Amino acid sequence: MTPEPAGIVVVGASLAGLRGAEALRRGGYDGPLTLVGAEPHRPYDRPPLSKHVLAGELAADATRLPELTDLHARWRLGSPAVSLDRAARTLRLADGSVLAYEALLIATGAEARPWPAETGGGLAGLFTLRGRDDAAALREALVSRPRQVLIVGGGLIGCEAASCLRDLGLPVTLVDPNPAPLARGLGSFVGGVIASCLRDAGAAFRPNTMVHAFEGDAAGHVARARLADGSTIETNLVIAALGATRATGWLRGAGLKADAGGVTCDAACRVLDADGAPCPDIYAAGDVARWPIPLYGDRLIAVEHWGNAVEQAAHAARNMLAGPGDQRPYAHLPAFWSSQFGINIKVIGLPEGADSVAVVQGSRSSRRFLAVYGRAGRSIAAVSFDQARWLPAYAEAITAGAAFPPIIDATDQPRVQTAAPGFPSPRQAAPARPSTETVDV
């Protein structure tokens, strides 16, 4: 099959892919532009899926992202990229077609980690929640009022889904291998607040609990979960909220530093080859990209947040159009938000690795507070539960490497005391299923 005309190809037609393509056009690129998407849909917004779509407040097909620039692009949707030939500068799609490229932006994002088929993953009534079709199918199942919903995984998606389902009056049990919800990302000191929210909302929360397998009825529909301790939980609808793996399988054999943890880039968003050298014609952005963040000791980090997808895509596009001597490093302070149990949670920085945490505004008991995380005497992150007024000041302090905690004697500040964040040990963070993989929940 003859390759189509070369130009810039964006692989991934979601938020990062769309905003990256728009930035290329705004930056003056007027050549051939192609967007490749695994799903048949034009780019859509994912945050509403676990909230408004599940609640029935918004149809799944009403989440389409606004297209802010006239792209004059070719759209290749519904046929994912399956391989990359860097020597020939071509990529092959699942439908067998071949696309040539002069430059490539990888923005394939991440995929929901499925439950293994050998332990019940093929049963009807077992859902993941990542894409538009996932949300539509799950919403349809919820309309039938399942008698007991089981959510496996207490990360953001699991907690948001639990909050939404309790608002719908559905019976919910959330099981998590960690001692508190959000413990992997925020620690048990803060996550314990969400545990109390779960219980006050009428959900059953089972911490330190691992699901071994799912069992089905005669019709092949999920009927129960068998736990690692031998007990069971009856359920006829399961949401497996086990985190995500980066969509990098199509890059296998391409000679790049890429695995299930992401595509490794340099500070300028250029993808590194297997020898660690930056590829001048291949960039990455969004959930799939991991790059060194100086603020955290140049540790390679993949940031699965909405704001990063937008900002990094624009930065990668800028560098794609710049000369080799004008490759600017991408500076970003990770930030994300979540709405659950009537609380607006905002996080700046990366709490993981903190050795201390302090509540510097409000109180955990009121569920309105701001907490700061420290490591080795430096402030590295902050989280707000409906107490975001001081968050911009802490963002500045974290970026500046200020001492922990950086702001003392502020208005209405309680007596600041430090505590252990309570991040789970590797044993506590074991997967909620029999596998050697790491589960990011």
TrEMBL record:
Every FAD/NAD(P)-binding domain range: 8-313
GO molecular function, one term: ferredoxin-NAD+ reductase activity
Domain Reductase C-terminal as annotated: residue spans: 336-406
Cellular component annotations (GO), alphabetically ordered: cytoplasm
Cofactor: FAD
Keywords: FAD, Flavoprotein, Oxidoreductase
Superkingdom to which the source organism belongs: Bacteria
Disordered: annotated segments: 416-441
Alphabetical list of Pfam families matching this protein: Pyr_redox_2, Reductase_C
EC numbers for this chain: 1.18.1.3
Compositionally biased spans, kind Low complexity: 425-435
Protein name: Benzene 1,2-dioxygenase system ferredoxin--NAD(+) reductase component
Organism: Methylobacterium phyllosphaerae
